[in-house]
Amino acid sequence: MILLLVSLLGGALSQIVEDGMVLIVPKYKLALGRTIENAHTKSTWDKTKLAPFLISQTPITNEEFHEFVADQSFVSEAEKFKWSFVFQMFVPDKIKEKITEAIKGAEWWMPVEGAYWAYPAGPGSSIEKKQTHPAVHISYNDAVEYCSHIGGRLPTEHEWEYAARGGHRDQIYPWGNDYKKNRMNIWEGNFPTENKGKDGFIGVSPVKSFKVQNDFGLYDMVGNVWEWTSSVFGKDPHTRQPQYALRGGSYIDSKSGKFNHKADVTTRMGNTADAGSDNIGFRCVKDVSEEEITRLTSRDEL
Predict the structure, then answer these.
(1) Whether the Cβ atoms of residue 182 and residue 210 lie closer than 8 Å to each other
(2) Which residues share a beta bridge with 269?
(3) What are the beta bridge partners of residue 35?
(4) What pLDDT digit, counting tens, does each position of 140-154 carry?
(5) In the sheet that 280-281 helps form, which strands lie side by side, from edge to edge?
(6) CB 3.0–4.6 Å: which of 143, 170, 174, 199 could bond 282 by disulfide?
(7) pTM for this entry
(8) d(CA 55, CA 255)
């Protein structure tokens, strides 16, 4: 067990990190989706009181997911389906030539046979040098199994958003209300053909590539990969299957929302429990008791 007290943002706030998870003790009721930009659009907002919880400091990495797979002989849904969606920029030409189907209106997502978390771009790709990248092609069901294995669960939307805001009310980004360059991995250029990579990346980046995004010491809450939550988003318009909410946006999302989604703390979309692609990952939470909070915050333990 590793227990650290880390000082963040010039010593403005300290947070306790245990085994890669950050302790969060909510101080206010969350108005989901409210920011200074839209607060005036409703006379009242539903507010939710949250219990304390631990949350993964980063998205779950390939290294962590690989350990789980090896320990449990786990087979992901993308492996069972024998394919997953890969962004066109990362699909080799020889594989593109064999693909005859695409999603209408989102042709940049290509169904690649043999793509899953260990082979994120399909045959010929590897995670050998990507151990600290977020695990991708992870379905909701895969994420539930992993989190359960470590004694946790997926966060609710409310828990995820409170964590993303870093304890502050109504702000737009994890760090504040002003957009800042090089704080998150998003698309910069003409979508979907050109990503200028001004932030240093054109696809998924390793966790902790950017400095902590907020006062809770969390990384990649916005940008890089979408993250599953346990909250129901709605129903698939075609199959009527339940969809679960994903939060945070990914490397194909944008500053303004001119294409795909606007990358901020309110960004959300839904997908079915078996869905996966090369920009979907997750992190876990754990419930925490008053006794555990006392232990974690006791100076005698530090």
Answers:
(1) yes
(2) 246
(3) none
(4) 999 999 999 999 999
(5) 268-272, 242-247, 226-235, 280-281
(6) 143
(7) 0.93
(8) 26
